[in-house]
Every structure is written in structure tokens, then in C-alpha cells.
Amino acid sequence: MPHDDPPPPSAPRIRASDKDRDAVLGVITDAVTSGRLDPEETADRQDQAIRAKFLDELMSLIVDLPEGHDLYRTLHRQTSGGATPGTAITASSGPALLAPAAEPGSSKPMNAVAIMSSREIDVVPGTAAVTTYALMAGDTIDLCDVMGPGVNVALTNYALWAGHDVFVPPGVRIRDDTVNIMAGNEIHASAKGDGSNGTLVLKGVSLMAGHNVRLAKGYRTKDQGQLE
Hints:
single chain; five-stranded parallel β-sheet; six-stranded parallel β-sheet; elongated; 2 domains; 4 helices; alpha/beta; 11 strands
């Protein structure tokens, strides 16, 4: 009586590394910026990525995201035997939401002056202190690249009849230590995080002025076609 050949052994599941998880988190962040994920989906995928033990678990989180096509192919090569297990994965462009892009304090403090004018300021990774002076003006200050777990950034503003628009990523705790005279800062509810992505400390003095702290574009619910 003929014997059936045994089925071929299934390929072993390849365990994910911290670099793998960080790369997937980077893709999720890029997808949020593009408006592909709503806040609930974003949080769910981030949690799953952090908890993932195997590469195939990570692949399911980015298979429907164009920003993750290159990374998905890299993961697939590893799981299908096309690459040596444990090969490092190149992260997608842009900072990963849950990992600082540089060691806190590794960059020089930043200074900016705005007098009846304005500009866009992208605070570089590793910056721990930013000081601004504003007179009848206001800058757009983007903190998305610098924030991350364990990061503390001091933003010191001296403003007269002026105010900045400050943008932060999700998860940033905001502490307002400013002195305000006929003035005040507006910290939008959607921008108030739990500190999992760092802490922003507002300092300085404002006279008849005030700053707006908002959640960065792509994270806000109104960018998902809903009311904020």
C-alpha cells in the first residue's frame, strides 16, 4: 500500500526585533500624517506593533498602507526565507512616534526672533531648549521631530502683542509655567497627552499676547473629515 509523502514542514515564524517594531511605528506615523488612519485606528495599530513578537504580526499592520509597501516587502523576504533572520530593517522616512530620533539634549539650543514678521520653525531632534522673542508677530513652531518617550523640551517665549502656533504629536504632556499679563495660552484639548511621547514645558512672559498649542496636522480629528 503506497505511503503518502509527509507534508513539507511549515516555515518557522521569525521573531521581530526592536528595529522591526520601530520601523512599523514609523510607517504608521507617516500614514497618520497622510490622513489614512483615524485616531482610534492609530492607537490600536501602535499598541499592536509594540506588543508584536513575530514579523507576520507586524506585516498585517502595514499591508494596506502605501507608506509601508517597501517595508512590507522587506518583512516578507525575511519570513519567506529570502533574508537572514534578524536582518535589520531600514525605517521609513520621518521620526517614529514612540522613539526619539536623537538623544535628548544632543543638539544645540535654538533661538528665534520675530518682529512684525513670522516664519516656520522645525525644531530638530535632540533639542532640549528653544527660546523665542516676538513683537507683534508669531511663528509656527513644529515639535513633531524632537518629541519622544523621555524627551523634555523647554519652550521659553517672550512675547509682546504676539503669539506663536505650536504643534505637537500625540502623547505629549504639556506644562504651562508662563507668566501672562493680560494674556494667556490656549492649549487645545486634542493636544493634551499623557506624557508617553515626552513633556513640553512652556516658559517665559507674555504681555497682551498668547500662544496656541495644537495637535499637528494629520492627527487632528478634523483632518479625518470630522469635527474637532
